[in-house]
Amino acid sequence: MTEKSTEKVEIFGQEYKIKGVGNPQYIQKIAGYVDKKMREIAHSSGIMSQSRIAILAALNITDELYQERDERDRARAEFEGRAARLGELLDTEIDVER
Question: What are phi and psi of 3, to 5 degrees?
């Protein structure tokens, strides 16, 4: 059984204790990413409300996630199509040699 640990992180000037199973460096990495996004939004928008900045950061990060998923799905479909065509070519070549 994997043991849970608590990692302290700082996001947008606030300290949080994150409980979970995982690599502490990974937890710091993702917290750092959220912090970076929030700071970018605060800097570019002039919004002062932490909750609004957090919501916009969450929306931006979610948009990135969905774009990556769409790209992965397109690449997978292209790969599957190419694999199917290659399989057809191999089947044709095998039939010709018989």
Answer: -90, 140
